[in-house]
């Protein structure tokens, strides 16, 4: 039994008399399950939970966590991995985690919806995945709350780890503008939510002037989950309407649908259309041209969540991290 940190793959392969590929596959499963943290350069992986969890539960007392997410079909792979790791940390300290999918922008007010879920599951704390401000505030008024992504109401009662979407998006837009792009399409995950507001404000601040046609809001159309046929109609309509020379996307699903559309209609990336993904999935590195992507520092966010647990679920404030750019070949200068 290994305690504290996991040895390197060479040591593990020798200890268990298996090939190193087998060790790599096993570690990948442990990472996805939140048992060990992801590898960092020249550092052994830290064991997040497992041995001794029963003793900790007895000492700290069992508590139930309500994990609220937008839907795993909406979340990208990196989102799912970080939630699984936070789930594992909680189980190692307190016990049970209940997952609930909600539509933040539909149905009852967040106060009523949260109150019903808290009563239904008899939980002691709440973990929100990318919530709007209204949900963050409402949850914090009910129970100890941690927000994984989303918008902070800038209150001391909120514990949150995220990135400054507005500032990070401005950096991307600034680079595209420097390459001559003026018609930049930024599809959003909602119509009137936080993503749309961030995108519109960033475009207003970074574009050298107002859009040639329409408004800034017209450059940020809602990009909702649809079937494959609807995706093609969506891209045909929006690209023709805006005559965009570049597109900034928030989701790998949106990226795959756009790449498929461009392949079908022989739109050359990046010569005719530059593409940036404001997310990361290692599988997207197989695409050609490889998209420019931005990776969230999951390890830092998980450590912040662990600190919240270590502090007895008391508020620890907000931490905002910079995204890491993964270079690609999907952006280029505008051809005149």
TrEMBL record:
<protein>
    <submittedName>
        <fullName>DNA-binding transcriptional regulator, LacI/PurR family</fullName>
    </submittedName>
</protein>
<keyword id="KW-0238">DNA-binding</keyword>
<dbReference type="InterPro" id="IPR036388">
    <property type="entry name" value="WH-like_DNA-bd_sf"/>
</dbReference>
<dbReference type="GO" id="GO:0003677">
    <property type="term" value="F:DNA binding"/>
</dbReference>
<dbReference type="InterPro" id="IPR028082">
    <property type="entry name" value="Peripla_BP_I"/>
</dbReference>
């Amino acid at each position: 039994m290994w305690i504290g940190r996991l040895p390197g793959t060479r040591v593990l392969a020798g200890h268990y008399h298996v090939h190193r590929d087998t060790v790599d596959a096993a570690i990948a499963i442990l990472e996805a399950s939140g048992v060990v943290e992801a590898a960092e350069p020249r550092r052994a992986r830290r064991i997040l939970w497992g041995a001794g969890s029963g003793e900790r539960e007895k000492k700290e007392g069992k508590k139930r966590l309500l994990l609220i997410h937008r839907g795993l079909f909406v979340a990208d792979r990196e989102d799912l991995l970080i939630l699984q790791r936070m789930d594992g940390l909680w189980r190692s300290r307190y016990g049970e985690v209940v997952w609930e999918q909600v539509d933040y922008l539909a149905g009852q007010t967040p106060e009523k919806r949260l109150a019903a879920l808290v009563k239904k599951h008899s939980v002691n704390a709440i973990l929100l995945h990318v919530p709007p401000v209204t949900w963050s505030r409402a949850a914090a008024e009910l129970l100890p709350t941690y927000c994984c992504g989303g918008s902070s109401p800038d209150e001391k009662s909120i514990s949150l780890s995220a990135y400054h979407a507005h500032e990070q998006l401005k950096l991307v837009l600034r680079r595209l503008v420097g390459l001559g792009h003026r018609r930049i399409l930024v599809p959003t995950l909602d119509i009137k939510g936080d993503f749309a507001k961030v995108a519109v404000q960033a475009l207003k601040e970074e574009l050298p002037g107002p859009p040639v046609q329409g408004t800034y809001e017209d450059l940020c159309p809602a990009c909702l989950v649809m079937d494959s046929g609807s995706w093609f109609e969506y891209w045909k309509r929006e690209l023709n309407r805006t005559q965009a020379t570049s597109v900034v996307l928030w989701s790998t699903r949106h990226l795959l649908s756009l790449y498929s559309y461009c392949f079908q209609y022989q739109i050359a990336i990046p010569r005719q259309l530059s593409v940036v993904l404001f997310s990361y999935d290692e599988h997207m590195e197989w695409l050609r041209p490889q998209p420019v992507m931005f990776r969230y520092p999951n390890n830092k966010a998980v450590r912040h969540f662990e600190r919240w647990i270590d502090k007895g679920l008391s508020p620890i404030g907000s931490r905002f991290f910079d995204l890491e750019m993964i270079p690609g070949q999907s952006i280029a200068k505008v051809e005149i």
